[in-house]
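[step 3/7] inverse_fold.run input=structure_tokens len=267
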């Protein structure tokens, strides 16, 4: 039973055993763990997850792959160790599938074209995973950890919820078909909403950083003033001891959180 990779699903099947081992080990799995695997493909990573004794919920959008997966993992599906579901990860509701906050780990080889959407959706999900271990484009992983010391909307959107770390680098030759770029295994641990006072604070924070990064060549203060017109933003910068001539990429996560907290009380 053969199904060729489909471009519309961004399918690049992982073939490297060392890379698979690195992903599984990063998950620090124990037998009581539940794993949400996005896009199991032909089950290469699924096999490694099951070997650790974890319960796996595998969500596959390509319906042509489901018969192959059911055949390959017939005993695991019969025992309940593996649950195969057809669907789109961006439509999946953890709560409606008996998952609770911090009760599962998201581990996956993610299609490049929806990397940002998946990360954003599951970090901000009401029912958050405790850990995410994702195989993504290397350059994206490096932006998330701010390897060059410059923050981005993406890096801040991740760091405000958890601690990102690149744990393994994967060459393009580790996939079939081989993509045009290299990949990296990114682990986001200690996921929570601990940095937010409440949901309004969370919404203000994201409104604030989007404002700050709106015009890259302008100072963060000027950008923010354009959005928060009814607030004395200059005074807030002074209270927070943040330079009025700093660009958004040089403002730290803690400084953004301080500003957002002050905006909550002034808006």
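[step 3/7] decode complete -> sequence:
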């Amino acid at each position: 039973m053969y199904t060729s990779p489909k471009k519309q699903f961004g399918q690049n099947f992982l073939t490297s055993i060392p890379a698979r081992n690195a992903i599984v080990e990063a998950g620090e799995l124990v037998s009581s763990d539940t794993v949400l695997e996005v896009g199991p493909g032909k089950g290469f990573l699924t096999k490694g997850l099951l070997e650790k004794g974890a319960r796996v919920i595998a969500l596959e959008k390509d319906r042509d792959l489901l018969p192959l997966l059911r055949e390959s993992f017939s005993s695991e599906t019969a025992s309940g160790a593996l649950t195969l579901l057809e669907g789109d990860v961006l439509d999946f509701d953890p709560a409606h599938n008996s998952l609770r906050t911090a009760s599962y780990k998201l581990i996956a080889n993610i299609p490049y074209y929806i990397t940002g959407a998946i990360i954003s959706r599951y970090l901000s999900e009401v029912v958050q995973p405790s850990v995410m271990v994702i195989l993504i484009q290397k350059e994206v992983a490096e932006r998330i950890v701010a390897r060059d010391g410059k923050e981005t909307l993406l890096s801040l959107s991740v760091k405000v919820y958890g601690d990102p770390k690149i744990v393994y680098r994967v060459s393009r030759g580790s996939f079939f078909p081989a993509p045009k770029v290299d990949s990296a295994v990114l682990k986001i641990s200690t996921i929570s909403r601990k940095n937010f006072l409440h949901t309004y604070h969370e919404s203000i924070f994201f409104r604030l950083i989007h404002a700050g990064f709106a015009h890259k060549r302008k100072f963060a203060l000027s950008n923010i003033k354009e959005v928060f017109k009814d607030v004395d933003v200059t005074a807030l910068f002074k209270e927070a001891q943040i330079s009025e001539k700093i660009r958004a990429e040089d403002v730290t996560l803690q400084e953004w959180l301080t500003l957002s907290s002050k905006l909550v009380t002034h808006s």
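[step 4/7] annotate
The chain has eleven helices and nine strands.
Strands lie at 13-14, 34-38, 55-60, 82-86, 105-109, 131-137, 163-170, 175-176, 183-189.
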